[in-house]
Predict the structure.
Amino acid sequence: MPMRSMVEKVCFCFIILVFHMWIWDLVSAETLASKRLFRIAHQQRQQIETIELLFNQNPGFQVFSLKNPSRFVMDLKDCWFDDNVHKILEVGSPSIKRIRISQFRKNVVRVVIDQGMSFLKPEISTREHPMGERILITLASPVENRTAVLTENMGIHTSPAGSEHTGSIDHDETIKKNTNTAHLNTKAGLAQESIDDLFSSSDSGMPSRPLAEKSRTTSVMTINGDLRNQTAYRLKKPHQFSKIKTDFNLNLSGEVSDNLSYVLGTRFSYDAVFDLTDNYNEDVENDQKKRVDLRDAYVDFGWGDADFRIGNQQIVWGQAVGLFFADIVNPKDMRGYILADLDQIRIPVPAVNLEYYPGSLYLQFIFIPYPDFNEFGKKGAEFDFSRAFDAQNADIVVIDPQRPANSLDNSELGFRLSTLIQGWDLSVFYLYDYYNFPVNYRYISVNPMGSVHPVTTTYRPKYERMQRVGYTFSKEYMNAVLKGEFIYNHEMFIASLNPADFDGILKTDTFKWLLGVDYTFFNSLETNIQLMQEIIVDYQKDMTQEEYTTSFSIWMKTGFFENKIEPELFIVSSLNQKDSLFRLKVVYNYNTWLKFICGVDLFHGESDVDFGLFNKNDRGYVEVLYAF
């Protein structure tokens, strides 16, 4: 179509422009800075685990966190790392899996801490050192003492080469601090002497600079969140605004004691498209115009090697980029399809979450006292899943889904076991729950003579129990991160095309797998490629799905002008159904707290397949995000 052709040309020109900007960024980059990182050391003693970074001069830095997998990242500005050689320090504690160091850009050294299961929020301080300046990253951990040192200085032995891979479409990046190290404090309650003992200055006889007493205080409550507005415009007829939505996420958190903490998160939403336009019916307006949600709201209690979390929470098992694959515990808010950030799509569930760390193992048990399910848009919404029923030569009747009662008889439970073996991050899991999508049981009746359609098809959606077992892995190898997810579904419900089938549903086991790789080209172009397939074990020709359904996805992200501008591309497509979703956006990071985003989301395919169902929903959008 003309509109699609125009958008595709614009996207192609944009990609060419990004490529030229990237070349210019490489050519015009400043020479290596004079601030040099020459030593990384990790030590652990009793309850204190500390990472020491030594410099000839004190650099400024920026720290933030990344998810899937969880990482703590420190970018050291105006700094360099000898010979641009990537280094890996294998730690293997419950708090820290490994530490990775790379020359991320010509004047930026990136330090990545791959978080273990019991990773705590680190505290950062700066101290003088006989050899220059040092930064200490300190956290508490209840495991045995161990020491590992990685040094890059005048031929001293280093660890094997590796790489640094950051970012994903679900990276949930939150900037914590962007400052010079001169203004940082240490972890509250940690004795000055205990930290000094970890990294003594006995080689020169010079003591570390003592910290002010106030550096050992913490706030009782922390308030953070974000305010975001996204305005979207449909690119196909009818050309109209589809979204003018403002979300306000507010989170309160604090520590009652060393072992007891809490989080209270809420979200307030208002979509002005319902007041400024008449694009949607009253049912859709009542459902999506205004909303107040309780988000993550839980209490954490730590006892020895165990942690308890009770309350509303997101439990993320998968590592797939941009998609929900092994991420099967939380239901999803599908009223905006899968176009929002994944942590905003997940619906937190009330649960008891027990985590236990015996040695190098991680054990997790979850109990959900009553089930919750995916939310879908009403009839006539922008993303109306009931369109799938319309293309039939029949009168269609859809009954509201039959939901199980909120009782312990309908509770859900699962467990996960994880370990780290020679760099392999391995997990197995089991989940006994209700499937988050309703099973659309179908009943056909013949209409009287003279009716517009010969039959009436009645759908009676019902939520059914399921058992799922899965396995995930990730491994860093030759500058890349390999990852995989495998899920076996016992008695999945597949729709039948046979009108003689009584309820239109066939039961069979299914197997799903995903293999992916993360790689960063030229220390700046982050990429992820994923191949996915679903296999129906006991296939029957009357099933609506094919025996093998194969898909792939590609994700790319880079940054220009010290990451002020960050283009991002995500494509997912089915090889069987020949449908696809194309997503392109550009983020302008005005400062640490304020971002401006513009992008397009394009759907392609026939109307009876996944992405093709919304092939008229192509949109362009702008978004403003303020985090605090």
Summary: The domain at 34-183 is CATH 2.60.40.3500 (Immunoglobulin-like). Residues 27-33, 141-219 have pLDDT under 50 and may be disordered. The longest strand covers residues 505-521.
